[in-house]
Amino acid sequence: MKLVFATNNKNKIKEVQKLIPEHLSLLSLEDIGCFEDIPETKDTIEGNALQKAQYVKSHYGYDCFADDTGLEVSALNGAPGVYSARYAGEEKNAEANMQKLLSALSEKNNRTAQFKTVIALILNNETTLLTGICKGEIINKKRGDGGFGYDPIFKPEGFDETFGEMDLDLKNRIGHRGKATKKLLDHLSNKFQ
Fold first, then answer.
1. Closest Cα partner for 151 from 189, 94, 68, 72?
2. Domain extents for the chain?
3. b/e map 107-126, b = 16+ CB within 10 Å
4. Of 93, 103, 145, 178, whose CB neighbour count within 10 A is largest?
5. ∠64-65-69 over CA atoms, to 5°?
6. What are phi and psi of 186, to 5 degrees?
7. Which residues contact residue 174 at a Cβ distance below 8 angstroms, ignoring those fewer than 6 apart?
8. Looking at the DSSP assignment, which residues form a beta bridge with residue 115?
9. Contact by Cβ (8 Å): 14, 146
10. Over the stretch 91-149, which tens digit does the pLDDT of each residue have?
11. Per-residue pLDDT averaged across 19-37, rounded?
């Protein structure tokens, strides 16, 4: 069975590919010849995930899933949230995003945060939303050079390491994208039993 993961983010594809069973053939946007920027103009994480999946389905005809992820920081009323990738500007610079966030939290005592991933799946003309959340906190300075995005400053609950210090298998097990992907896989296996 072929399913398109509507992303050009090779890090995301690598993370999800490790979790997908062998009978599922995961295609990227590049694999289906989609090289345009898919709009992400909604003001919620759910809305963006759905918009991307609907775009692929309507323009390319493939069953697909798309995800959107945001870092929601309690002391900033859920910001950067849906704007996480563009927090410091349209160039989507991870280093600048982290520095802006650390600066915004410099006077704050509450550093609790959560990563939230929403996957929108369109399969057989049926749409399903699946959510994965990983709670944790924002530390004071970067640690580790693994992962991507805000990973070096996010420490998940119950761990001393940041996502930037963790190996990919552990991050997949406890992380937001791994949790949402597990829900996706459970949903797919229930569909195809």
1. 94
2. 2-191
3. eeeebebbbbbbbbbbbeee
4. 178
5. 160
6. -60, -45
7. 134, 156, 159
8. 71, 134
9. no
10. 889 999 999 999 999 999 999 999 999 999 999 899 999 999 999 999 999 999 888 89
11. 86
What does the pLDDT average to over 17-23? 75
Mean pLDDT of the chain, nearest integer: 92
Q: Where are the alpha helices (DSSP H) in 92-175?
A: 94-104, 168-174
Identify the residue whose tokens are 């979790």. 19
- Which of 182, 165, 185 minimizes the C-alpha distance to 174? 182
Residue 193: which pLDDT band, with cuts at 50, 70 and 90?
Answer: low
CA distance 28 to 4: 6
User: Helix and strand tally (H, E) in the chain?
Assistant: 5, 7
Interatomic CA distance for residues 123 and 4, integer angstroms: 10
| DSSP state for residue 2 in the 8-state scheme | E
Q: Which residues are catalytic?
A: 68
* Packing angle of the helix pair 10-17, 176-191 (nearest 10 deg): 50
Contact 163, 143 (CB under 8 A): no
- Domain 2-191, CATH: 3.90.950.10
Question: Phi, psi at residue 103, to the nearest 5°?
Answer: -65, -45
Q: Which of 155, 3, 110 is nearest to 65 (CA)?
A: 3
Cα-only R_g, the chain = 17
